[in-house]
Amino acid sequence: MSAKRQGFADRRKTCGYSQESFAEAINTNRSTVHRWEAGTADPQPYQRPAIAKALNVTQEELEILLHGTSEQSRANLFNAQTEPPNDDEFEAWELMRRVAASDVGTETLNRLEKSFDDLAMAYPITPPQQLLQHVRKHSAYVSRLLDSRKTLNEHRRLLVVGGWLSLFGATLHIDLKQEGAATAKLQTAVALAKQAEHSEIQAWCLETEAWRVLTSGDYSRAVQLSQAAQAIAPPGSSALIQSTAQEGRARARLGQAKETYTAIDRVQKLSGALQQPDTPEHHYQYDPAKALAYTATTLAWLGDRGAEPYAREVIVRLQPSTDITKWPRRVASANIDLALVLLKDDRLDEACDSASKAILSGRVVPSNHWRALEVVKAVEARQLPEASDLRDAYQGMKSIGH
Q1: How far is CA 400 from CA 362, 363, 393, in A?
Q2: Of 124, 174, 308, 344, whose CB count within 10 A is highest?
Q3: What is the spatial distance between Cα 133 and Cα 122, in angstroms, rounded to a whole number?
Q4: C-alpha pair distances (Å), 66 with each of 25, 29, 101, 105
Q5: Cα separation of 341 and 293, whole Å?
Q6: Whole-model pTM?
Q7: Does residue 390 fall inside a structural domain?
Q8: What's the rounded Cα separation, in Å, for the pair 7 and 37?
Q9: Where does a domain end: 100, 127, 142?
Q10: DSSP letters along 178-213, please?
Q11: 276 within a domain of the structure (yes/no)
């Protein structure tokens, strides 16, 4: 044992502690106490008040035990009855210890945050049912950690990552048309975001609800929710751009051309000011390709033929191969947008081909089935020979989705 730490061990024994009982008294483990006494490690600053209290020494005397001084000083320390610190001093030490005490840890939080990012990046190409399994496990773990000892900073980080996971879970439930679960998850996300004072998550919650009511046909409510999201979203954030794009889509469904074009212009200006993100596939990070996709959909819903070049560019940029089962979700949506425009121009064969590929790709989630159905009904209304096959493909997709 290091000569410098012999005094520390002697004092522990004088106070009646074994290494194990001393470790328990100061909320650490025996191997840590052993390293302190061996001189291979030092106690952390937040641990020292508790150590001093357990050994009935002052902070200065603890430094002597840890780092050594003259033999006479050490002898005086053990042979003299030292005056214990007063209550105020102990209270200050205890507060410092409690603030710094944690069963969570930075590494755990880093891994949770990375796991959320990984899930959000997998969203475009992974079935929502599969992602939900991971979201449930991570959310349950966050819930357990919230009951653990943690620092104030760790508590806020847990609230934030829990808010993101709940929001993402709500999105997946909406994709699957699981309305009750979606509502519960959104309410949880809002509560956690408010506790953490995280305005971006709150804005995303409003934008997500705007999308849900839009898919159910309540376009006016979708406009209101999108505007509410814009009002609280941080300047220049992805939430601000996405909620602006959502407003544009809702106004297109209402047939409000002027307001729709204004929203499209705002989205293009906002997204044009963004740098290309490192992870453009991340569901909660906006990028230029997303602006193209939303413009294509918005113009297609407005009946504007200008949607065609946007839809084609999305397909060229994001289509990884001719294998439609490997398409990201945005490519399937762009093909539906393209089909709507081509039908308007009586390019019927190409329109049916685009619609069929989108439906058979497996990338159209239940919340978007209505978009595919619009194309199917338009083809049926024209009594095209492809209508029967397209309807069969749609019914097959719908049965798998549910």
Answers
A1: 9, 11, 11
A2: 174
A3: 13
A4: 18, 18, 22, 26
A5: 14
A6: 0.71
A7: yes
A8: 9
A9: 100
A10: -HHHHHHHHHHHHHHHHHHT-HHHHHHHHHHHHHHH
A11: no
230/242 Cα distance (integer angstroms)? 9
Q: What range does the domain containing 381 cover?
A: 288-402
User: Is 356 a member of any domain?
Assistant: yes
What single-letter amino acid sits at 391?
A: R
pLDDT tens by residue, the chain, 402 residues: 444 578 888 888 888 888 988 988 888 888 888 888 888 888 887 788 889 888 988 877 888 888 765 444 444 444 443 444 556 655 665 565 555 567 788 888 999 999 999 999 999 889 999 999 999 999 999 999 998 888 889 999 999 999 999 999 999 999 999 999 999 999 999 999 999 999 999 999 999 999 999 999 999 999 999 999 999 999 999 999 999 999 999 999 999 999 999 999 999 899 887 776 666 688 999 887 788 889 999 999 999 999 999 999 988 887 766 777 778 888 889 999 999 898 888 888 888 889 898 888 888 888 888 888 888 888 888 888 888 888 888 888 877 654
Domain for residue 139, yes or no? no
CATH of the domain at 342: 1.25.40
3-state secondary structure 66-121: HHCCCHHHHHHHHHCCCCCCCHHHHHHHHHHHHHHCCCCCHHHHHHHHHHHHHHHH
Check which CATH number belongs to the domain holding 9 and give it: 1.10.260.40
Which of 100, 119, 141 is where one domain is finished?
A: 100
Concatenated DSSP letters of 287-333: -HHHHHHHHHHHHHHHT-TTHHHHHHHHHHHH--SS-GGG--HHHHH
What end-to-end distance do the CA atoms of the chain give, in Å? 68
Q: Hey, what are 359's tokens?
A: 């439906």
